[in-house]
């Protein structure tokens, strides 16, 4: 269950707190001495994203057999209860190679993401929507963040894809909630605790339930 605002790994001498260093401290017997980091990561989460992280079963990730679902709080009230977002994503050289939806991008690839509305509410008094997100095709860097921004509902606290305006929340509200890895020997299925509940963050106030999270995950399974 990765914390927000922490890197998977880093070669910078001043960045001593990484997921790799945490794993090495907690499970020294599992560290691989033949690697620089001690661990081989086959699943990545952004620096600002929290949640369930898989560290095994490389072939399942490579063959797209893994199911991943993310929770997010996004700006505004999303009117459609369910939608498929289809935009090609590439890298814009004029923006420092930041992944984004754009015309004339370098190496654009078609991508599809699914958005399911769970709750409408407010965050620090502003209208927001709690959603479940899935990458259906593409799986480009920052894909879910780019797609949410493209439909006019950027992730709360996402400074990069809010035209560098949304900097007030203490974290970016994107969380890897559910991970299913069907390895040949066993089915690995994990849920990281939902951080977007009022008991964890009193700034988030739900007003109306559209779809229950447990029912949505059951349908996903």
UniProtKB/TrEMBL annotation:
Residues 32-150 form the Pseudouridine synthase RsuA/RluA-like domain. GO terms for biological process: enzyme-directed rRNA pseudouridine synthesis. InterPro entries: PsdUridine_synth_cat_dom_sf, PsdUridine_synth_RsuA/RluA, RluA_PseudoU_synthase. GO terms for molecular function: pseudouridine synthase activity; RNA binding. It comes from the Eukaryota. Belongs to the pseudouridine synthase RluA family. This is RNA pseudouridylate synthase domain-containing protein 1. It comes from Buceros rhinoceros silvestris.
């Amino acid at each position: 269950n990765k914390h927000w605002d922490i890197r998977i790994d880093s070669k910078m001498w001043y960045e001593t707190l990484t997921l790799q260093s945490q794993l090495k401290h907690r499970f020294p017997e599992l560290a691989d001495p033949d690697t620089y980091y001690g661990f081989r990561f086959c699943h990545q989460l952004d620096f600002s994203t929290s949640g369930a992280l898989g560290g095994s079963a490389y072939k399942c990730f490579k063959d797209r057999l893994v199911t991943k679902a993310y929770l997010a709080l996004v700006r505004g009230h999303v009117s459609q209860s369910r939608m498929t977002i289809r935009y090609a994503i590439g890298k814009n050289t004029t923006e420092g190679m930041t992944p984004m939806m754009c015309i004339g991008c370098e190496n654009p690839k078609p991508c599809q993401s699914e958005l399911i509305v769970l709750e409408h509410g407010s965050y620090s008094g502003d209208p927001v929507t709690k959603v479940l997100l899935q990458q259906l095709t593409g799986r480009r860097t920052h894909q879910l963040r780019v797609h949410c921004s493209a439909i006019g509902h950027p992730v709360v606290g996402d400074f990069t894809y809010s035209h560098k305006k949304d900097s007030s929340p203490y974290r970016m509200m994107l969380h890897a909630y559910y991970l299913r890895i069907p390895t040949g020997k066993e089915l690995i299925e994990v849920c990281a605790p939902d951080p977007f509940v009022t008991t964890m963050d009193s700034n988030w106030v739900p007003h109306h339930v559209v779809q229950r999270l447990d029912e949505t995950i059951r349908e996903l399974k």
